[in-house]
């Protein structure tokens, strides 16, 4: 069990991992790309950004698991390029955005 933004208990499958947790909070926080309350002038743009946030979270998690040093590696393992590794910093931007949205 985990707790939702309003403090109520919410069931989240542990095997869903980070993306499952994000999907569990995005609707209560109003971060779903399916929002219908947006101004027509910006609706498509906001939907693209919110959908991109999901993709970013998925990609960063996979990059960390497959290319990072969080797990034991085989002998021939090649570390990821330093420039690509900098993309993992996008995780802090996403986390700050989510926390600030929760606090708002």
Tell me what the structure shows.
With 104 residues, the protein is mainly alpha-helical. The chain has one domain (2-103). It contains four helices and two strands; from the N terminus they run ββαααα. It has helices at 17-26, 43-67, 82-85, 90-103, and strands at residues 2-3, 9-10. Strands 1-2 form a two-stranded antiparallel sheet. A hairpin with a 5-residue loop joins β1 (2-3) and β2. α1 packs antiparallel against α2 (43-67). The longest helix has 25 residues, at 43-67. It is elongated, with a radius of gyration of 16 Å. The two termini are 24 Å apart.
Strand content: under 5%
Helix content: 40-55%
What is the average of the pLDDT values? 78
Q: Got a strand count?
A: 2
- Total helices: the number is 4
Flag low-confidence runs: none
Question: What structural category characterises the helix and strand content?
Answer: mainly alpha
Number of domains: 1
Query: What is the distance, rounded to the nearest whole angstrom, between the alpha carbons of the first and last residues?
Result: 24 Å
Biggest sheet overview: 2 strands, antiparallel
Please state the overall shape, judged from the principal axes of the Cα atoms. Answer: elongated
Strand order of the largest sheet: 1-2
**CA gyration radius, whole angstroms:** 16 Å
Elements, N to C (H/E) = EEHHHH
